[in-house]
Amino acid sequence: MTQRAVFFAYILGLASTLLAPETYAQTQLPDTVELRAVTVAGHKYTRYAAGSRTQSIDSLLLSRQPGITLADVLQQRSPLYLKSYGNGMTATVAFRGTTASHTAVLWNGLNIALPTLGLTDFALLPPSAHTQVALQHGPGGALHGSGAVGGTVLLNNPVSFEPRREVQVQQELGSFGHRRSAASGSFSNGRLSLTSSFTRTASDNDFRFRNTTVFGAPRETQQNAAFKQTSFAQDLHYKLSQNQRLTVRGWYVKTHRQIQPSMGSANNHAVQDDENLRLMAEWQGQLAGGTTTVRGAWFKDRLDYAENGTPSLSTVSTYQSQVEHERQLLPHLLLQVGGEAQVFKAEVGGYSGNVDETRFSAYSWLRYTPVDKLQINLNVRQAWVQSFNPPFTPTLGANYTLLATEGNTLTAKANVSRSYRVPTLNDRFWYPSGNPDLKPENGWGYEAGLVHAFQQGKLTGTTEITGYRLKVEDWIQWQTRGAYSEPVNLQNVRGYGMEADYRWNFQAAENVLLSGGLAYAYTISEQKLPNAWAELQDRQLFYVPKHKVAGWAEVRYRNWWLATDATFTSKRYTDNDNNNWLDPYALINASIGKTFAWRTFEAQLQAQVQNLSNTVYQTMAYRAMPPRNFRISLGLKWAQQP
Predict the structure, then answer these.
(1) Which of 10, 50, 108, 135 is the most buried (most CB within 10 A)?
(2) With DSSP H G I counted as helix, E B as strand and the rest as coil, what are the percentages for the chain, rounded to 5?
(3) Which residue blocks in 306-395 are alpha helix, DSSP H?
(4) Which residue has the higher pLDDT, 21 or 296?
């Protein structure tokens, strides 16, 4: 019955695009964003995220390397720690000392985390060159719903009706059989806008590595680690009138991976096939004195795993609908209200039968600007989940401008937010270890910081420092008990830390531009565990580094550029007792390139060195990572604008 209601809401939203009136008072949708190829623009959520730390990823990185996975993007441009089971293998990310299941991932406003695992494999997300990537650090239950405990990754494909025609292709080759082909195109005539992107990436992954589990750490050739991935994305936007817009989006990713065995273990010839299809439709128009948006979506996620020929199959269909209305109540008061529904239908071999689940939530976001120097947000959400009772999740945040001069702006920010996470389907239904009696996690987060924007002659930049504290009750963790591992609710996990971010640009000469950035995270995330004398001791959660640093710099001279990025990750414990750990490591990458331009035609030649220092490192215990390797690419682009 519920599924029918969700489906009906979806059909109703689509039908309303055909029946909506043709004339309204306004002449342009307020959410319409006119963008050039590499412009980073704000996402709508930033309007309601006062007091939170938000970060936009430079889209120039996606433009130069179409097909690069989101895992690689975040590794190079953020202080987040990525756990990877090998090059091209499963890669997950976590904010502020939480786990991968505490990170929400939204694609154009809809959560795409896999309901069975409750997490997202970032190696399966190759964003197109037209995708905006933004991060919101800290809890965001009121904005993003279940799972937004540590932070949120926002993927957005903006709407642009600016007349243009563009075609871009790129071919990349590299070490260990790496190859990537990419093509994209866009067209707009002021009423119809189309964007398409295609990428195919493959690698033999037959690199040499040091096997640290064997005496003398001999060099061996990595076995059973090849992969290939194909991705296609299509966006269609159509202006039904000056005040109505219809959007249809599709994103298909198919990945075949041999599962890289850990050092010292036998090769069981494991393989995994992932197939992810995401379809959504959106109507937006002017109603009741504001902007109304209706979305409907269907996702199908297939994960087939086989070990020594024995298969384990999983297919999940997700139906989502969402209705939002934003209205300017007063000159300084902006309100958005909305509701959404989700239906999961899972066919998983590890369950004792098929599983269905229904979720609803209603939310309200309020932005108040009493004076130019002060912005206040009050956001609330209440969710209803089949068999569960998630907590009411409010958020209160504020930004206040302390100083505003010709060359400097200093802003103070503070935020308090509640979050929650419903147990995943695997947590409850995996046979025989699932625990249907698990409680939903709920947490509180507090943060405060300063943001300094400056301009001194030819130097511009921003500096941001944030301190935070996080508490999560009924934290869900899988623990080994007897012959099986099973999920349990821990009493609580507490965390605190500091994040710093610095970005700058310097116009050294007419044809010389220097730019760079530095991001640092200090993270403490602890639970209390008994020692040998049954005394409770604070223990850092496993795979949470206390220190993570990411830095990057670039020099541009006319049509040439030279860029480098480096990361440092401190020691990470690999067990709850903090008796075993992985050593710290640093990685350095570098690239050089040149652009050749002839009127409407452009060619880009680029050479890259990954792991320049040839560092031997692991992000997961006993999972080998590639040594120094090289890539070269050639891109061709044709663009025409009236």
Answers:
(1) 50
(2) 10, 60, 35
(3) none
(4) 296
With a cut of 70, say whether residue 115 has pLDDT above it. Answer: yes
Residue 287: count of CB within 10 angstroms of its CB: 17
Q: Please, are residues 424 and 441 in contact by the beta-carbon 8 Å criterion?
A: no
Is the pLDDT assigned to residue 603 strictly greater than 50? yes
User: CA 642 to CA 263: how far, in whole Å?
Assistant: 58
| Spatial separation of the C-alpha atoms in residues 516 and 510, rounded to whole Å | 18
Q: Which residues pair with 374 in a beta bridge?
A: 371, 400
Three-state secondary structure call for residue 436: coil
Per-residue pLDDT of 527-539, as tens digits, reads 766 555 555 567 8
Q: Torsions phi, psi of 597, nearest 5?
A: -125, 135
Give tens-digit pLDDT for 319-366.
999 999 999 999 999 999 999 999 999 999 999 889 999 999 999 999
CA 248 remoteness from chain centre: 21
CA neighbor of 626 nearest in space, from 636, 637, 635, 617: 617
Could you tell me the CATH number of the domain that includes residue 487?
2.40.170.20
- Contacts of residues 638-641 at CB distance under 8 Å and 24 or more positions apart, as own/partner, are 638/166, 638/167, 638/168, 638/600, 638/601, 638/602, 639/37, 639/164, 639/165, 639/166, 639/167, 639/600, 639/602, 640/164, 640/165, 640/166, 640/600, 641/162, 641/163, 641/164, 641/165
**Res. 30: pLDDT tops 50:** no
490 to each of 439, 443, 574, how far by Cα in Å? Answer: 10, 13, 18
What's the domain range around 86?
2-640
How far, in Å, CA of 369 to CA of 360, rounded? 30
Q: Widest CA span of the chain, in angstroms? A: 77
Domains contained in the chain, number: 1
What is the structure's pLDDT at 7?
33
- Rounded distance, CA 19 to CA 401, Å? 45
The pLDDT tens digits of the residues spanning 123-162 come to: 999 988 788 999 999 999 999 999 999 999 999 998 889 9
The strand pair at 151-156 and 103-107 is best described as parallel
Q: H or E stretch including 574? A: none
Within 8 A by CB and 6+ apart from 254, the residues are 229, 230, 231, 273, 274, 275, 276
In 3D space, the residue among 189, 61, 78, 173 whose CA is nearest the CA of residue 128 turns out to be: 61
Question: Could you tell me the sign of the dihedral formed by the alpha carbons of 31, 37, 41, 43, in that order?
Answer: positive
Q: Which strand (E) or helix (H) includes residue 403?
A: strand 393-404
Round to whole Å and give the CA distance between 401 and 411.
Answer: 4
Question: Tokens in use for 305?
Answer: 């795993």
How many Cβ atoms from other residues are within 10 Å of residue 622's Cβ?
16
19: phi then psi, degrees, rounded to nearest 5: -105, -10
Please check whether residue 516 is in contact with residue 552, taking contact to mean a CB–CB distance below 8 angstroms.
Answer: yes
